[in-house]
Amino acid sequence: MTPVATLVMTQPEIRALLPMEVCMDLVAEALANLARGESQNPLRWGMRLADGRGLLGMMPGSTSAPPALGLKVVSVFPGNHGTEYDAHQGVVVLFDPENGVPRAILDASEITAIRTAAASGVATRALAREDAGDLALIGSGIQARTHLEAMLVARPVRRVRVFSPSRANREAFAARESERHGIRVEPVDSARAAVEGAELVCTVTSSKEPVLDGRWLLPGCHVNAAGACLKDARELDTEAVRRARLFVDRRESALNEAGDLLIPMHEGALGADHIQGELGELLLGRCVGRRTRDEITLFESLGLAVEDLAAAHYLDRVGRERGAGTLVELGGRRA
């Protein structure tokens, strides 16, 4: 058997090889396969550091189509916000499903940034009104950048407003992304000013407290909540969740990890049956999405290992075909 060298890929290499529209298709397929029962996606495991500065998380998974086995190991350091470092650092390790040899070691920050927004793009494509074009972004970091890209793929966006607490950050984001996409991105002075009248809303913050008030939501809008991924943190208030038809990436994950859902449940405002379905089930036609033009829809995104694996498998294949990345000799072999 000819040994397979391990492919190592950096953040810029991944960004160049994984366009948003491609990743959206990969994520859609991965979520549909998960809903069919063709993948394994156990709950993530995390270890909080003793000093409270951050945590180390692990997300294993496997898929049958395409055949992939892997693990994302990521550190989360909220204190990195405002520095040159992303709050999420780590690697996705892809193993050969035939012999367990490491096939690829990939920068997790870039994969996470792209695939998270891609999942929101898939949800927007499935749930938002066809003519939705007024977009509100709450947050101005990496996920705001990739979510803007995903929304431009998913819908005919004509207006963009962005809010984050730092005026300098939101103004810098607006200037940079306006030039990048050739569309005016308007920085505004409050989350309410961004959301009122918006047909698409993306919350992409690191806040533990609600940044979105349900009373602001326009009838018929679609919300992607992608920032909060812990059971004691939320970006949406109870009214925002109560008003919306809620869809999740995975029920088990949402009922164990999603503060946006668990906190309103603890308050007694709603139950687990508020979940209308998983996004993969929706893609397979196993549940009903938007029913009326004025209905508010919500996608609660926690991020799944199968999404990372779909992106990693694609990058491993395309990277080898195009000579991208660096090949190294890993894997335990008998002498």
Residues in helix, % = 25-40%
Order of secondary-structure elements: EHHEEEEEEHEHEHEHEEHEHHEHEHE
Major sheet characteristics = 8 strands, mixed
Tally of separate domains: 2
Rounded radius of gyration (Å): 19 Å
CATH top level class name of the largest domain: Alpha Beta
CATH superfamily of the largest domain: NAD(P)-binding Rossmann-like Domain
Class by alpha and beta content: alpha/beta
Number of helices: 11
Give keywords.
about 325 residues, alpha/beta, ornithine cyclodeaminase, domain 1, Rossmann fold, eight-stranded mixed β-sheet, eight-stranded parallel β-sheet, globular
What features would you describe in this structure?
- The chain has 11 helices and 16 strands.
- With 335 residues, it is an alpha/beta fold.
- Helix 2 (20-35) packs across helix 3 (108-127), helix 3 (108-127) packs parallel to helix 4 (142-154) and helix 3 (108-127) packs across helix 11 (305-322).
- It has helices spanning 11-17, 20-35, 108-127, 142-154, 167-181, 191-195, 238-243, 251-257, 259-267, 279-283, 305-322; strands at 6-9, 39-40, 45-48, 55-64, 67-76, 88-95, 102-107, 134-138, 159-163, 185-187, 200-203, 222-225, 245-248, 275-278, 297-300, 326-328.
- The longest helix has 20 residues, at 108-127.
- Strands 1, 2, 3, 4, 5, 6, 7 and 16 form an 8-stranded mixed beta sheet that branches. It has an 8-stranded parallel beta sheet with strand order 10-9-8-11-12-15-13-14.
- Strand 9 (159-163), helix 5 and strand 10 form a beta-alpha-beta unit.
- The protein has 2 domains: 6-112 and 305-328, ornithine cyclodeaminase, domain 1 (2-Layer Sandwich); 127-300, Rossmann fold, CATH 3.40.50.
- It is 36% helix and 24% strand.
